[in-house]
Design goal:
This protein is α+β, with helices and mostly antiparallel strands and 551 residues long. It has helices at 61-68, 112-120, 176-181, 201-215, 240-253, 269-274, 297-304, 309-318, 366-382, 401-408, 454-470, 472-485, 513-528; strands at 7-16, 32-41, 44-55, 76-87, 90-97, 126-133, 140-149, 161-169, 186-189, 193-198, 230-232, 260-262, 277-281, 289-291, 320-324, 337-338, 343-349, 352-357, 360-365, 392-393, 415-416, 435-436, 442-447, 496-502, 532-537, 540-541, 549-550.
Length: 551
């Protein structure tokens, strides 16, 4: 028979302990039946806030009314309770009901629960893992295995994933629940910790102090420690002013002092295939700036150079980029995106690497960066292709990418498929490759004016390889296109993908950390498809920078 316990499951957050308890929560004055109490847990003075968040009608009421003409009268109340317990240097918040809505995200310690879970969860019997990919797709997934499984069962990658939540059984033997029951309960670990905690004051304080010690323990022996290698940087982080200052400096000076580049936002990948230009609005100056898809970073840096540092950051946030179907920026074909989502930046402070990506700051440990770089160096060293390419004269009459692909295809056995799109149910419009090699190599070609431009190349290669494996229509269309260009050529059986670049060479020192992560993920994807990833450096001649126009 299970032993009884004096604990109940509650959601626990950890807050900045330097604030007065009155400043720890958002304004709750609009709540119904609001009660605020100063309470004592032994010698600790705590703050208890309770009430109801009242709504006269649900948020979807207007939609129902507009569709049906039927008025919606469904008032509701959502009770909440928050108990703030100051235990310097932290303040703990116990949350009941909808109490989390009163927490100010800026004073909540991110990943507090995750830090506890890394040290106490059973890594062999996880139930749920929530994570986001650290690449241009910004893909977010939650995977659940009701019976539990180890990390490998969830398809976790050893690099390039931002873990936000674990759920599973945990060792709580040094807390009240474990001492009373001897069992390993299910907990949830993310920004908060959802676990059984005591219902009585003295035991609660003891458990909270024990939790503090657990979170401060070394995590070197935990197989889950990888989950804390990449973290978001809060807007109130002490390093934030230095990071913003370095970004402002780099915006005006290009990549001269710090790694800075242009990257495709996740929501612009499809537009990248269709756009002939991009229009930047509200950047300053007269009219909108019209950029080519292959725009060099210096073009944008020139716009920022004459601005004060604080104005550069303001313009970065307020300027909007919209894809256009013509090269003059007159025919808009998609929604606008903030310019900040197009900029990628890296810098190091006190041996910690920080990345600005998709408009957010991330903290990446230097150990993690070195591990990624070592893997990329090994991949590039062993996977050089035997294919050769003609010189790409960027400033010549055939300097654009499409013309160069046709130039490559003038060689025996090569076929140009650039802009020759395939169509499948899962992928309405994509390129199978830019060039088919003499031994059915799928060659993807790109001029890398900036290291970040490689991200789009990786995506094109991954989409093509997955479509050829999973969708029969893709393989059929590949062979139809080949037959049209080279009648009688045997059906293609591609087993190699070649990434061929000009403008720079394959060198980990020239690739952003997140670009290196994407490259390792691509290699892993292709290997799972029994396909080899290879690399080529295209001999090239740089042409003069093309002038950009304003409209």
């Amino acid at each position: 028979m299970p032993r009884r316990t004096s604990c109940s499951t509650v959601s626990l957050y950890r807050l900045d302990g330097d604030l007065d308890l009155a400043d720890c929560l958002l304004d709750s004055s609009s709540a119904d039946g609001l009660e605020e109490h100063e309470v004592q847990l032994d010698e600790v003075t705590c703050r208890l806030v309770m009430g109801r968040i009242h709504s006269e009608k649900p948020s979807w009421a207007a939609h129902v009314n507009s569709l049906t003409g039927v008025p919606v009268r469904l008032p509701s109340s959502q009770p909440f309770g928050v108990l703030l317990v100051p235990l310097p240097p932290w303040t703990y918040a116990l949350i009941w009901g909808h109490g989390h809505r009163l927490l100010d995200a800026e004073v909540v310690e991110q990943n507090f629960g995750l830090l506890f879970g890394i040290r106490r969860l059973d890594p062999a019997h996880l139930r749920t893992v929530s994570r986001s990919a650290m690449d241009i797709t910004a893909r977010t997934t939650q995977t659940s295995i009701p019976g539990g499984g180890d990390v490998g069962s969830f398809g976790m990658e050893p690099y390039g994933e931002f873990v936000s939540r674990f759920k599973g059984p945990a060792d709580l033997n040094d807390l009240t629940y474990g001492a009373e029951t001897g069992r390993a309960p299910q907990i949830e670990a993310g920004d908060n910790l959802k676990a059984p905690l005591p219902r009585f004051g003295t035991a609660l304080l003891t458990d909270l102090n024990t939790i503090t010690k657990i979170v401060d323990e070394p995590d070197d022996d935990s197989s889950l420690r990888f989950a804390h290698l990449v973290r978001r940087v809060k807007s109130r982080d002490l390093e934030r002013p230095r990071l913003e200052g370095r970004l402002a400096e780099a915006l005006a000076n290009g990549a001269e002092h710090h790694p800075l580049g242009i990257a495709w936002p996740a929501n612009e990948l499809r537009a990248a295939e269709e756009a002939w230009s991009f229009k930047v609005k509200s950047l300053g100056g007269s009219g909108a700036l019209v950029l080519e898809p292959s725009t060099e970073l210096d073009v944008l840096s020139e716009q920022f150079r004459g601005m004060p540092a604080d104005v550069r950051l303001h313009r970065l946030r307020t300027a909007r980029v919209v894809p256009c179907a013509d090269d003059a920026g007159a025919e808009e074909i998609g929604a606008s995106t903030s310019l900040r989502r197009w900029i990628v930046f890296e810098t190091t402070i006190d041996h910690v690497r920080y990345c600005y990506f998709q408009g957010e700051w991330f903290r990446i440990g230097e150990e993690y960066v070195e591990r990624i770089r070592d893997q990329v160096e090994k991949l590039l060293t062993r996977n050089n292709t035997t294919l050769t390419f003609p010189v790409w004269n960027r400033g010549g009459e055939r300097g654009d990418e499409h013309s160069y692909c046709h130039q490559v295809a003038e060689r025996d056995g090569y076929l140009c498929l650039d802009r020759n799109f395939a169509h499948t149910p899962f992928h309405p419009k994509f390129e199978l490759c830019d060039v088919v090699g003499p031994n059915d190599e799928l060659v993807h070609i790109k001029w890398l004016g900036a290291a970040t431009a490689a991200s789009h190349l990786y995506t094109q290669a991954a989409v093509s390889a997955e479509a050829l494996r999973d969708e029969p229509d893709a393989a059929r269309q590949l062979n139809e296109k080949i037959q049209k260009l080279s009648p009688g050529r045997p059906d293609a059986q591609p087993s190699k993908v070649v990434l061929a670049i000009a403008g720079r060479s394959w060198d980990p020192q020239q690739l952003f950390t997140l670009s290196q992560v994407s490259l390792l993920r691509l290699d892993r994807t292709l290997r799972s498809l029994n396909t080899t990833l290879e690399f080529a450096n295209i001999p090239h001649v740089r042409g003069p920078a093309r002038k950009q126009v304003r409209r």
